[in-house]
Amino acid sequence: MASTSPNPASLSAPLLSDSISPAHAANGHAANHRHHHDGAVAASVCGDAGDPFAFLSEDRPPRDRGPSPADPFRNGTPAWCGGAYAWARTLLLLPVAAVRLALFGLAIAIGYAATWVALRGWADTHVRPREGGGPMPAWRRRLMWITRISARCILFSFGYHWIRKKGRPAPRELAPIVVSNHISYIEPIFFFYELFPTIVSSDSHDALPFVGTIIRAMQVIYVDRFSPASRKAAVNEIKRKAACNSFPRVLLFPEGTTTNGRFLISFQHGEIYRY
Fold first, then answer.
1. What is the C-alpha to C-alpha distance for residues 123 and 156, in angstroms, rounded to an integer?
2. How far are the Cα atoms of 4, 50, 141, 169, 179 from residue 174, in angstroms, in the given order?
3. Where are the transmembrane segments (predicted)?
4. Cβ atoms within 10 Å of 240's Cβ, excluding its own
5. What is the pLDDT of residue 195?
6. Going edge to edge, which strands form the sheet with 198-202?
7. What residues contact 262, with CB distance under 8 A and at least 6 apart?
C-alpha cells in the first residue's frame, strides 16, 4: 500500500541483462537470445540505440497503437432481474437497509461534528488551507480519530464488515507518499480511516457540503488543473509536506479517474505526477 520512492538515478540504469541486444530489448523480447562472439561487449540499452523508456517522457507521448479491445471502464454490473425471488429478498432486507441507512447518517453527523470542533479556531484552515501552513496540532489530530472511526462505520454500513489487509504500511519516514489505484469512492474513505493522509484535490471540492470540511482537516493540497501556476504550487506543497514527518502522508491517485480495477491505465501527465 505504501512504498518508498526510488532513487531517480536508478531509473536510468538498464533493467535487462547485458546479453540482450538493444533491438530485442526495444521490442520486449528477452527470451533465449545470446551473443556467440567472444570478447564482444553488449551495447547498452541506453546507448546509441536510444532510450527504451523514452515513451515515459513528458515531451514524447506514447505512440498510437490503435484501438484496444480492453475496456478499463466497463464494470459488467449484472442487470436487475425482477423475479419473485428478487422481490421477496428485497422486501425481506428492507429493515436491514433501514438500519444501515441510520448508521450511515449517524456516522456522518458524528464525524462532521468532531471535524468541526477539531478545526475550530485553527487559523491555517479558517477558510481553506493556505500554502505554507503548519501541521495540525496533536490534540486536534487525536480529536480526528472520532471522524476516522466514523469513516469505518460508514464502510460497515456499506457492507464492508471486515476488511482483510496483507502486510503493514511502511513507516512514514520511509514512505511519505502513498500511490493507489482508484476503483470507487471506497478507497478514499478507507485511506482516511487507515492513514489519515493529505490528498491532492480540485479546488472546487472545497465548496461541497461535509466533504469540504473533512478534506480541510486532511490539510488538502488544492490544485487547478488548468492553471500552470496552481500546478506548480501544488508540486511545491507535495514536496514540502512529504519532506516533513510532522505532516501526514501524501496520497496520490495517479490514474486521475476510476476504473474497473482489471487494467492499469496511463498515469496523468503533468508536473504533479512527474514528482
1. 34
2. 6, 33, 21, 10, 14
3. 101-123, 143-163
4. 14
5. 92
6. 177-179, 250-252, 198-202, 221-223
7. 70, 72
For the chain, the distance separating the N- and C-terminal CA atoms, rounded to the nearest angstrom, is 18
Q: What is the pTM of this model?
A: 0.66
Residues in the chain: 275
pLDDT tens column, 229-251: 888 888 889 999 999 999 999 99
Cross-strand bridge partners of residue 223: 202
Per residue in 159-181, pLDDT (tens digit) is 999 988 888 888 998 999 998 88
Whole-number CA gyration radius for the chain: 24
User: In this structure, what are the phi and psi dihedrals at residue 200, rounded to the nearest 5 degrees?
Assistant: -100, 125
Cα–Cα nearest to 133, from 50, 47, 221: 221
Q: Which range, of 68-82, 155-169, 215-229, averages the lowest pLDDT? A: 68-82
CA–CA dist 178, 26 (Å, integer): 31
